[in-house]
Amino acid sequence: AGCEKEPASYMWIYILLGNMLRGIGETPITPLGISYLDDFAKEENVPVYVACLHTVAMMGPMFGFLLGSLCAKLYVDVGFVDPGSITITPQDSRWVGAWWLGFLIGGATNFLCAIPFCFLPKSLKKPEEANKDKTSHGLLENTGATRNKLSPEKTKPRKWSVMLKGKLLGNRMYFTFLCCSLLQFSSFIGFVTYKPKYMEQQYGQSTSKSNFLIGVTSLPPVGLGIFLGGLIMKKYKMSIIGAAKFSLIMSLLSYAVSLLHFFVGCDNHTVAGMTVSYE
User: What keywords tag this UniProt record (predicted)?
Assistant: First the structure.
């Protein structure tokens, strides 16, 4: 009778709020970091610097999978129960790893990494040579001059709906890039999410080993590809059109290689009463 009752734990709410706060804190790093690199670096070096930023960002999930692999080897109640009294192994379907330990280690590491940001100066002086080369700086100057000419009565705050419709969603290049990014990240997240479970079910691997293999084999090539893409863009000094063509060619090649996944797999398990008869 106790097994028929629904679980009454609300721990998932704390995990949801924790991930939400983490996302709020981590999100500004990428856009502000890219804008900082674009403003204070030479134009020909920006692709390499941005590639390095994204490559380091890909290293985080890789170490996260390795940490998850380590935590999955430990029993969920590690530190509270005697390890000798545990009669099941990580290969057992009833095994639950110390999933909470990764949150503590990751949270403490994030907190320590955030401390140096508190010592950054409020404003940085822009190099004079960069001021002449950056188109964005010229646009900012023109915008500032136009703003100064306007009287205070004519300067009104714009609504978010007007900004989205006129500046963001009305820009065909930005909107196309947004749709492409949405499709790419959706496929990548699905791949990373379900591949460990597939390896557990089809190949009989433990959760710990599945996470370890995903972290070692899937994410490092992505980081390497991002870094090589930045080097190629710097070497050939690609324009926006050239970068778009380069992205299109690489996406088509990636799609062609990904089709090979349809020809790789395992047969279904033989389950009495489902795939085979009881005899």
Answer: Disulfide bond, Ion transport, Membrane, Transmembrane, Transmembrane helix, Transport
pLDDT per residue as tens digits for the range 201-252 = 778 788 788 888 888 887 788 888 888 888 888 888 888 888 888 888 988 9
Q: Chain centroid to CA 114: how far?
A: 18
Tell me phi and psi for residue 88, to 5 degrees: -110, 165
Long-range contact set of residues 150-155: C-beta below 8 Å, sequence gap at least 24: none
What residues have CB less than 8 Å from 218, skipping those under 6 apart?
191, 192, 195
Mean pLDDT over residues 186-197, rounded? 79
Per-residue tokens: 197: 């479970």
Q: List, in sequence order, every residue forming a beta bridge with 78; answer none if it has no partner.
A: 81
- Residue 168 DSSP label: I
With tokens 């674009």, the residue in question is 38
Torsion sign (Cα): 54, 60, 61, 63: positive
pLDDT band at residue 88 under the 50/70/90 scheme? confident
Separation of alpha carbons 254 and 232, rounded Å: 17
Question: Sorting pLDDT into bands at 50, 70 and 90, what band is 159?
Answer: low
Nearest to 207 by CA among 63, 61, 72: 72
Which stretches does DSSP call E strand in the chain?
A: none
- CA atoms within 13 A of residue 266's CA, in its CB half-sphere: 10
Tell me the two tokens of residue 82. 């005697």
